[in-house]
Design brief:
By secondary structure, this protein is of the alpha/beta class. Helices cover about 40% and strands about 10% of the residues.
């Protein structure tokens, strides 16, 4: 899909850039740091939560690639690239791993090319799609992933942004499309 760069307003805080700041990333502006610090004052554990979630991603992807033998990952709600993105973790274990990132946030789309630099033996792709449209996600992901083989589905921190029943329906649709062993 097209990865046209949207206009980014560096004077307005953005949740993906704030999260990136908490993870120690560089893709944030002063306003993101200020708001991130305000949020941290209200919720002192938020930075630990962000970093624990990233540590979980590393452990889960490493386990799935090394122990379970998965070579395909569908990472929905990717967020901004930072240290230890899914393709980096998976391809450290298996250079032939294939990863599809999905997000529809214009700020994330502006940084998407950084996610597309994986190992030449594998593949990385980016799909500009909304979580609420799982059929589009699956259609475009199938250009890179083989849905007859197991796929690791990653939905870290994104399903909670959907209302209850919608989240269940979307997750069920994505899971139902995956083969046994996923």
């Amino acid at each position: 899909m097209s990865l046209d760069r949207p206009v980014i307003n560096s004077g307005v805080p953005h949740s993906a850039r704030i999260w990136n700041y908490w993870l120690g990333g560089k893709d944030c502006y002063e306003i993101d740091r200020q708001v991130g610090d305000e949020i941290r004052r209200a919720n002192p554990q938020i930075v630990d939560i962000a970093r624990a979630q990233r540590a979980f991603l590393r452990r889960a992807v490493t386990h799935l690639a090394a122990e379970a033998g998965l070579r395909q990952f569908l990472d929905v709600g990717t967020g901004l690239p930072t240290a230890d993105n899914t393709h980096e973790v998976a391809q450290r274990v298996a250079r032939d791993a294939r990863i599809v990132y999905v997000d529809h946030d214009p700020v994330v789309l502006a940084h998407a090319n950084a996610l597309l630099s994986g190992a030449p033996e594998g593949a990385t792709a980016f799909v500009d799609a909304d979580l609420r449209d799982p059929d589009t996600i699956l259609e475009h992901a199938a250009r890179t992933l083989d849905f007859s083989r197991p796929v690791g589905l990653i939905l870290l921190g994104v399903a909670a942004h959907l209302p209850g029943e919608t989240a269940y329906d979307v997750v069920a649709r994505l899971v139902d499309a995956l083969p046994s062993g996923s």
